[in-house]
Amino acid sequence: MTHWPAVNKPSQQGRRRAFLLGVLVFGAVRGVALADVLVGTNGERFVGTVVQESADTVVFDSELGGRIVVPRSKVRDIEHAEPKTPVVETNAPIAASHPVAKKTLNLDWRPPAVGKDGSDWIQLKSGEWLRGKLKYVQQKRVEFDSDELEELDLKLKDVRQVYSAQPVFTKFHDSQSFYGTVVISNDEVRISGATIPNYTRDELTGVTPGGEQEIKFWSAEASLGLNFQSGNTKQATLSASAEIARRTPDTRFMLNYLGDYSEVNDSESANNHRLNSSFDIWLTRRWFIRPVLAEAYHDPQANVSLRVTGGSGVGYEIFDEDSLEWAISAAPSYQYTRFETVEPGSSDSATTPAAVLQSNFKADITSRLTFIQNFQMVFTDREAGLYTHHAVTSLEFEIKRHLDLEVSFVWDFLDRPQPKSDGTIPFKNDYFLIVGTSVRF
Description:
Blueprint: H1 12-33, E1 36-40, E2 45-53, E3 57-62, E4 66-71, E5 75-79, E6 120-124, E7 129-138, E8 141-146, E9 150-155, E10 159-163, E11 168-172, E12 177-180, E13 182-185, E14 188-191, E15 199-200, E16 204-209, E17 218-229, E18 235-247, E19 251-264, E20 267-282, E21 287-299, E22 304-320, E23 324-339, E24 349-364, E25 369-379, E26 387-398, E27 403-414, E28 429-440
Antiparallel strand pairs: 1-2, 1-5, 2-3, 3-4, 6-7, 6-10, 7-8, 7-16, 8-9, 10-13, 11-12, 11-16, 13-14, 14-15, 17-18, 17-28, 18-19, 19-20, 20-21, 21-22, 22-23, 23-24, 24-25, 25-26, 26-27, 27-28
C-alpha cells in the first residue's frame, strides 16, 4: 500500500481569514482602479467621484477635500473610471454590448508644470496632485495652502511627493540646516546643491520656507464652547482655548490658553484662566532643550489670585511616529503665588523652588479622530500647596479641513489649598468638561 505524505488542510478559521484578506485587498485595489480623476486648468489633480456635471460646474467628491464645486472654466479634463452608459430610446434597437477596459490610476503621472510654474506641489498617496504654497513640514505634519482646497493640515505618511519651487530651510537628524529647493519623493529627500548628500525621509526633522515673511512661521488654533440654561436654574458657561505656534526646523515656540467661566443664578461659580508658554530647541530628532518654560494661572475659587511659574529644562520624544507622539520633559523652576484671601496673620503670598514634569501624548485612533493627553505635575513646598497637577484629556474629531469638534476633560488638583479669610478650605479637585468647536488658521 502506498502511503502519501500527509497534507495539512487549512482550518476553517484560516480560510475565513484568507477570504476576508482577499476581500479587503480587492476592495482597496478596486477603489483605486475605479476612481474618477478631475484635472484643473492649473494642473491640480483630484481623485474621487464625479457627482454631477453641468454646462457651468462640476460637483466632485474628492478623497482629500470632500465635496467641491469647480467651475467648468477651471476644469481641463475629467477621466471617468467607467464610461457612462449612453441613454437609448425605448423604441430604438439595442446594439450588442462590448466589454470596455476600465481606466486605472497612474500614480507615476506628474503635472507638466511641476518645477516650472513657480508654485509648490505635493502628491498624496491617493494620487491627487495639489498646487499651492508649502508652509512647513514638522513633527510628521505637512501644512500646505492649496489653490483649490485652501489650507490643509496633512500627515506626512499620506504625502507621496513634495516639490518646493523656492529655497527652503531643511533640517535632518544630527545635522545642520540646509538651504535650497527640496524634493521629497517616496523615501528619499533631495536638496539642490552639489555638496549636499541625499537623505531618507525617516531622517527628516523639518522643512520651513525662507524667512522673508515672518508670518509663514506661525500657525494658530482656537476653540470655543458655550452653554446657556434658563428656567428654575439660570446658568451660563463659557469655555475657550487657543494655541499659537511658531515652528522652524530647529525650534518650536508654543503659547497656549485655557479658560472657563460660569455663572449660576447670577452668582459666579467658576472663573479660571491658564496661560502656558514654552520655547524648544532641537538638539537631535529625539532630544530638545527648553530654555524658557512659563505659566500664569488665576482661579479665585481655588484661592489663587495669581500663580506664576518659570524655569528651564530638557525634553525627550519617546515616540515620534506618523500616528503616535509622546514627549516628556523636566524643568527645575521657581514659583510665586499670590492668594485671593488669607486668614489673619498669614502671608498673602508664597515663593518657592519648584520641579515641573510634563507629558504630552497624542495618538490617531482613525484618520479623523485623535486622542490627546497632556499632563503636568508641579512639586513645591507646603506653603505653596506641596503638589499640583493639571491634566487635559481630549478627543478631537475632524469635521472639515479647518474645523474640529473637541471634547475635553480637565482635572486640576492642589494637595494643600490655602485657607480663605473666613477659614474655609477650597476643594482639592476641580473638574471641567468642555465641548466645543475649534478652528485652525
